[in-house]
């Protein structure tokens, strides 16, 4: 039977051992110490920086024709120099999400001197509860924590099985924010501002208020002028934490207020709310192993098999998506979700929204994982980004529609990044806009398509139609100047360059946006002229090309990579999330895509990242190679995830001095595993398309497929035993398994057993 609990037999000593809780806006990392309990706090709108209307280079539009001509003429080095001077953005007040103070509870040392025994620390994915319990001094101590979405607070209850045993001092400490803490008759209050000078000017940022209230049964509560609260001799203590900011005009004090809340009611509402999402999907890949999770992960990294750990990781990605992105979340999942370790925000990356794969990966678990509501904050965010990106399209490119590049922030930054070599991802906006179409594909809600998705997709297509340029030699429509994130090539004279015309990634997303815009307009019966223009432009896009190594070319010309071990393979988005290259439809191109994956891994110094391993797992799932997909899922868990199973970007890569938490590996890993078990394109459902040979027996229930389907699968001996497919509406689709294709028809609400 599959497990759904992360458990540990010792307290967390560092961030990557703590356990995450979240309510879609407010996040906490619970450490579970014996003498000291720590909850590290984060909140999605605690951003430095501010909106700006001066991010675009004032000389970019003037110099674009010259840069294009140099690239078409083969003067790559000169084009690179001119682009470096005129194309990067000017993000003076870009900002970053910032970590909040931590709540620290210090307990008096046990008078008997006895060490803690029978220690157990758990995160139950089914209930969303973190529980810490241990024996010390002949007393059983228990703490329970969760982040309530219905009530907007983090709650912790402390109990002991002897009366009047609970005593501690409480502080809010270890903050990088500009502000301070005061104590009140019932708790702590922090007032401050999220300001810093690395990603903004050190003056602009949101106002932040944190309130911590202590409700005690028995005992006393005292406070002092130093911002400390002391609880003495209590029977039970309930700690409630609320956070507010003034992002988007909100009232931080109102958001941080804590009403009268009964703990049992609060707990019951939290569990019911959480389980309404979490219980939609179950997965069983084998029996649970009765060892602490960190020990299991270490054994797994050494090569010991633990299929249930993979199932646990799959459900963990769903848990984190629920905890980090809810229907009413003010912002979508950032680079670190809603759990800020303080590292990304204090280095060159910024804890922001990366549009050259990371933010997209943050939502790979959402639709197949039956968490459609969790997509809502990203949909709203992209709608706002599309509005902000209109001025960039006009001022930088003289183009219609909207554009966004490599990074964006809480206010919709849409200009290129500040550096050449990574900042000129011209199709970053088109790429993230595909998430809106994906949400439609799974649900076929025409009202949503008309009112929310289509305006964004239409204007992304208008930009493409304005921006694409005829290639002087071939007549193909190509994008540029832009970069293939975040890679460099060697020009014929050996000069490393990043800026090019007609990168394959741009071709993939141009084709996708033009195709989808035309398809959506047809469904809605609008914009016939735009449909005609989009279809005509699609026919003129450059073809995919295979290079001299048998590889899918990343650039229009057969350049070698400046760094053959580079972590990014943006051109393979033609395989996933797109289906422009498929094993059955374009087998030669599919083989060329596989060559890219193998060449990157074999190159000395291969930059293994958490999102890269998840990406490769998804690629191999689409290439119908389950064993290789499993290899990369295994590496993701064993090599790029930590003791608490949170994924990380390894120190030494992309300028990181140490391992830095990154949400994308967890969600993308879940999405890749789902893709191994079920694939759909709106016309066909393929069952167990990339089932690894070692997964002999198992089941998954509740996966979603495009077209409004919910799918339950059971397999024995490596063969499909039963598939039960439920259709939300009247539907007809092809169902494929192991080379057999069956046409199946459903009435609305009907479930069919296919095998």
Helices and strands in order:
Elements: E1 5-8, E2 19-22, E3 26-30, E4 36-43, H1 60-72, H2 76-86, E5 102-106, E6 117-124, E7 129-136, E8 139-148, E9 153-160, E10 166-173, E11 178-183, E12 187-193, E13 207-217, E14 220-223, E15 229-234, E16 236-245, H3 252-255, H4 263-278, E17 282-284, H5 293-301, H6 307-324, E18 353-354, H7 358-361, H8 376-397, E19 407-408, H9 428-443, H10 446-467, E20 469-470, E21 477-478, E22 482-483, E23 489-490, E24 496-497, E25 499-500, H11 504-524, H12 528-539, E26 560-561, H13 587-602, H14 610-622, H15 626-639, E27 648-649, E28 660-661, H16 664-677, E29 678-680, E30 684-687, E31 698-705, E32 709-716, E33 719-727, E34 731-737, E35 740-746, E36 751-753
Parallel strand pairs: 30-34
Antiparallel strand pairs: 1-6, 2-3, 3-4, 4-5, 5-10, 6-7, 7-8, 8-9, 9-16, 10-15, 11-12, 12-13, 13-16, 14-15, 17-31, 18-19, 20-21, 22-25, 23-24, 23-26, 27-28, 29-30, 31-32, 32-33, 33-36, 34-35
How would you characterize this protein structure?
Helices cover 30% and strands 25% of the residues. It is of the alpha+beta class and 755 residues long. The chain has a 9-stranded antiparallel sheet with strand order 1-6-7-8-9-16-13-12-11. A 7-stranded antiparallel sheet has the order 2-3-4-5-10-15-14. Strand 8 and strand 9 form a beta hairpin. Helix 9 (428-443) crosses helix 11.
């Amino acid at each position: 039977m599959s497990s759904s609990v992360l458990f540990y037999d010792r307290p967390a000593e560092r961030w990557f051992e703590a356990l995450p809780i979240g309510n879609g806006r407010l996040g906490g990392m619970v450490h579970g110490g014996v003498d000291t309990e720590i909850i590290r706090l984060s909140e999605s709108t605690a951003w430095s920086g501010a909106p700006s209307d001066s991010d675009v280079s004032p000389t970019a539009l003037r110099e674009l024709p010259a840069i294009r001509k140099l690239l078409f003429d083969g003067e790559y080095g000169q084009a690179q120099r001119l682009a470096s001077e005129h194309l990067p953005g000017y993000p003076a007040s870009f900002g970053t999400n910032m970590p909040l103070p931590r709540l620290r509870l210090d307990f008096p040392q046990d008078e008997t001197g006895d060490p803690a025994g029978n220690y157990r620390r758990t995160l139950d994915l089914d209930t969303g509860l973190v529980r810490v319990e241990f024996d010390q001094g002949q007393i059983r101590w228990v703490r329970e924590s969760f982040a309530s979405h219905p009530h907007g607070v983090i709650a912790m209850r402390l109990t002991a099985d002897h009366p009047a045993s609970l005593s501690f001092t409480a502080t809010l400490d270890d903050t990088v924010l500009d502000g301070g803490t005061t104590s009140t008759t019932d708790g702590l209050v922090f007032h401050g501002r999220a300001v810093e000078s690395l990603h903004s000017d050190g003056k602009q940022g949101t106002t932040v208020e944190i309130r911590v209230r202590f409700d005690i049964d028995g005992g006393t509560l005292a406070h002092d002028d130093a911002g400390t609260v002391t609880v003495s001799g209590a029977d039970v203590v309930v700690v409630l934490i609320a956070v507010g900011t003034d992002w988007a005009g909100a009232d931080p004090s109102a958001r941080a207020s804590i009403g009268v809340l009964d703990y049992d009611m609060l707990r019951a509402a939290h569990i019911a709310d959480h389980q309404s999402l979490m219980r939609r999907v179950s997965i069983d890949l084998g029996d649970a192993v009765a060892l602490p999770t960190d020990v299991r992960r270490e054994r797994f990294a050494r090569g010991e098999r633990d299929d249930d750990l993979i199932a646990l990781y799959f459900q963990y990605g769903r848990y984190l998506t629920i905890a980090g992105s809810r229907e009413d979340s003010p912002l979508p999942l950032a680079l670190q979700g809603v759990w800020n370790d303080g590292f990304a925000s204090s280095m060159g990356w910024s804890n922001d929204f990366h549009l050259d794969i990371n933010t997209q990966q943050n939502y790979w678990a959402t639709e197949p994982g039956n968490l459609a509501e969790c997509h809502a904050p990203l949909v709203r965010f992209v709608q706002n980004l599309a509005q902000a990106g209109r001025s960039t399209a006009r001022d930088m490119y003289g183009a219609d529609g909207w554009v966004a590049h490599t990074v964006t922030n809480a206010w919709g930054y849409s200009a290129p990044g500040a550096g050449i070599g990574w900042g000129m991802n011209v199709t970053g906006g088109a790429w993230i806009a595909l998430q809106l179409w994906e949400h439609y594909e799974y649900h076929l809600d025409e009202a949503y398509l008309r009112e929310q998705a289509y305006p964004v997709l239409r204007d992304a297509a208008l930009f493409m139609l304005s921006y694409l340029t005829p290639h002087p030699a071939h007549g193909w429509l190509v994008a540029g100047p832009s970069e293939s994130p975040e890679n460099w090539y060697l020009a014929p004279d050996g000069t490393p360059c990043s800026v090019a015309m007609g990168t394959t990634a741009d071709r993939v997303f141009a084709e996708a946006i033009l195709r989808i815009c035309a398809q959506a307009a047809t469904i809605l019966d609008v914009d016939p002229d735009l449909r005609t223009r989009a279809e005509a432009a699609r026919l003129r896009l450059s073809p995919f090309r295979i290079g001299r190594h048998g590889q899918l070319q990343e650039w229009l010309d057969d350049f070698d990579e400046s760094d053959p071990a580079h972590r990014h393979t943006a051109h393979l988005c033609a395989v996933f999330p797109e289906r422009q290259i498929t094993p059955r439809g374009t087998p030669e191109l599919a083989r060329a895509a596989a060559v890219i994956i193998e060449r990157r891994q074999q190159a000395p110094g291969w930059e293994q990242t958490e999102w890269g391993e998840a990406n490769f797992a998804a690629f191999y799932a689409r290439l119908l190679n389950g064993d290789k997909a499993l290899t990369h899922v295994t590496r993701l868990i064993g090599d790029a995830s930590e003791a608490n199973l949170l994924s990380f970007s390894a120190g030494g890569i992309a300028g990181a001095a140490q391992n830095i938490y990154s949400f994308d590996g967890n969600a993308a890993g879940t999405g890749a595993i789902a893709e191994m078990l079920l694939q759909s394109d709106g016309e066909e459902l393929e069952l167990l398309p990339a089932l690894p040979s070692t997964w002999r027996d198992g089941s998954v229930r509740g996966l979603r497929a495009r077209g409004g389907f919910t799918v339950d699968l059971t397999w024995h001996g490596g063969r499909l035993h039963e598939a039960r497919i439920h259709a939300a509406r009247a539907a007809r689709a092809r169902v494929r398994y192991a080379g057999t294709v069956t046409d199946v028809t459903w009435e609305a609400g009907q479930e069919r057993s296919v095998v």
